[in-house]
Amino acid sequence: MIEADCLCGAVRIEVASPPETVTACNCSACRRLGALWAYCTEDQVRISGDTVAFARRDLHRAEPMLAFHHCPTCGCVTHWSSLVGGTRMAVNARLMDPQVQAAARVRLFDGAGI
Length: 114
Description:
Helix content: under 10%
Distance between the termini: 34 Å
Largest sheet: 5 strands, antiparallel
């Protein structure tokens, strides 16, 4: 079990196993959030504590696809969840122990080019 938490500790996340790969995306949202995304499914994650979500609207879609969650106290981005179905989500690996991050391969994703 891998643990992650926001700066103030109000939001805690447990992930079933350490990520082998984390994704650094440069889309308009991710480059501003500064997250390293560890992709997983909802059943592999347990989140405790309240978060506030921002529903991202893409220019080419009428409805938002993702909700980016953050701690309402310290502002740390904790995870994103899908608003269009499915169980895929991502946890901000920057909230994990630095040794967990260092062991993961960083995948660069050109989300700005989509």
